[in-house]
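Continuing the series of single-chain predictions for the mutant panel. This is the parent chain; the variants come on the following pages.
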Amino acid sequence: MRAWRAVEHGAPRDVLRLDEVDEPTPEPGEVQIRVDAVTLNFNDIDGIHGRYRTVPVPAPYIPGMEVLGTAVAVGNGVDRSLLGTRVVAIPSGAHGGYAEVAVAPATMTFPMPESVPLPGAAAVLMPFHLAALSLLFVAGPLAELRPSVTTTRPLHPRPCRPTCCRPLGAPGPEPRAPA
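Parent structure:
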């Protein structure tokens, strides 16, 4: 398969190469994804430069922290009903997405409805993930995050204490017809 590899750290135009590499196979708890779209975010660029300290990866490596595609194989312990589903995911190790096929932990792989068009479908995961984590740390154990779109899993199961906070991202009242 083809993948963009950072053959060393430096400016992307100088160090990225489109190479033939082995296709990754899912380990237990992972999902193999045939990639349709990827994002280019600041952390990827910082990683290619060798400056990303949160998830440092030695070169050579395949960048890419987010993918959109179709689940084509699963490792042991992963629900097989995910096969054939359009998904967004953060690949294992938070890199490896700039490839035709990537693997991701099942816990970081989420169904993406076909009704959500590109590029939004590919770009929603990391900002949503970071926003949820930020709210968790800012609001602490007092808030329950409830996404305003339907998901298959709760983001944060802690109960909200109504006297201290209000649910974040909860749907509001039904829209009214214009007068």
